[in-house]
């Protein structure tokens, strides 16, 4: 029943989103648009959902109907969780342009282990020697985990309330503490790599830094 209800709600979200202009002027409209896309393109969840959270904090906008926004975001978070659990939907999807998006469910699992997807990331991964990969993989896994924790902090803030704000602050402090240890090893590692893999990994680190900066600024409000 829960799954059926969730799918029905998501379908309703898709229908409502069809009435929204692409550039939506309220947070409610932005949420509806994102919900529609994660329903239609579950593999893009790792791209669309973090983007929604970042936009929510970067670009304050009118919320729209309070009850509608609360329903939409609750449905969005539930749909995101469902997408990450549904193997069949992910396996049938194809690799998109973003290097961060896994190709299938196995890729989704390996993402958090720091294992690149060859179909999406062969441009830099194949330039690593076995010895270099032995060092890069655990570091990339650590970065993925830090990035995930950072987005969890943004999600807690988006949900609102003092308890969740406290959770977000704890998440931020944990990420920053781990980052200090991480950076010393990371910079040494990058110096050993050729230009292509070094630049690809620096781009991944920049995404983490962006999330940390937005979370920090959001906590100061």
What can you see in these coordinates?
The chain is mainly alpha-helical. Helix content is 77%, strand content 0%. It is built from ten helices and no strands. It has helices spanning 2-17, 27-40, 45-58, 66-85, 87-91, 105-111, 118-125, 130-159, 162-191, 195-220. Helix 1 crosses helix 4, helix 3 (45-58) crosses helix 8 (130-159) and helix 9 packs antiparallel against helix 10. It is globular and about 55 Å long. It comes from Saccharospirillum salsuginis. Residues 1-22 form the signal peptide. Keywords: Signal.
Keywords:
mainly alpha, 221 residues
Number of strands: 0
- In sequence order, what are the helices and strands, one letter per element? HHHHHHHHHH
Average of the residue pLDDT scores: 76
User: Counting H and I runs of at least 4 residues, what is the number of helices?
Assistant: 10
Distance between the termini: 40 Å
Low-confidence stretches: 1-23, 87-98
Structural class: mainly alpha
Strand content: under 5%
What is the makeup of the main sheet?
none
Q: What Rg do the Cα atoms give?
A: 18 Å
Q: Work out the helicity level.
A: over 70%
Anisotropy-based shape: globular
Signal peptide: 1-22
Keywords: Signal
Organism: Saccharospirillum salsuginis
Protein name: DUF1311 domain-containing protein
């Amino acid at each position: 029943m829960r799954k059926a209800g969730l799918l029905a709600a998501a379908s309703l979200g898709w229908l409502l989103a069809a009435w929204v202009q692409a550039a939506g002027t309220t947070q409610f409209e932005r949420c509806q648009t994102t919900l529609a896309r994660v329903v239609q393109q579950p593999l893009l969840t790792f791209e669309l959902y973090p983007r929604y959270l970042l936009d929510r904090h970067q670009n304050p906008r009118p919320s729209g109907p309070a009850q509608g926004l609360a329903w939409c975001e609750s449905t969005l978070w539930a749909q995101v969780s469902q997408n990450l659990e549904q193997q069949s939907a992910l396996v049938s999807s194809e690799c998109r342009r973003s290097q961060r998006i896994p190709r299938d469910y196995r890729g989704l699992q390996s993402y958090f282990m720091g294992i690149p997807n060859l179909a999406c990331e062969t441009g830099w991964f194949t330039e690593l020697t076995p010895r270099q990969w032995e060092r890069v993989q655990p570091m990339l896994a650590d970065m993925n985990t830090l990035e995930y924790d950072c987005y969890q902090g943004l999600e807690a803030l988006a949900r609102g309330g003092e308890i969740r704000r406290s959770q977000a602050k704890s998440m931020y402090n944990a990420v920053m503490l781990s980052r200090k240890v991480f950076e010393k090893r990371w910079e040494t590692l990058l110096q050993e790599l050729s230009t292509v893999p070094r630049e690809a990994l620096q781009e991944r680190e920049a995404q983490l830094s962006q999330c940390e900066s937005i979370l920090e600024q959001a906590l100061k409000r």
